[in-house]
Amino acid sequence: MKITKRARQEFEFYKNTELDMIGHDIGVAVVPAIDGKSALECWWMKDTHGKTVPCREPKLLAKVFRSKQSVNLQVKLWAEDIADGMLLRQSELDEYVHGWPEWVLRAVMEQAGKLAQQQRGYVPRFARLEFLRGSIWFPEMDKFDASI
Question: Which residue, of 4, 18, 65, 103, is most buried by count of CB atoms within 10 Å of its CB?
Answer without folding.
Answer: 65
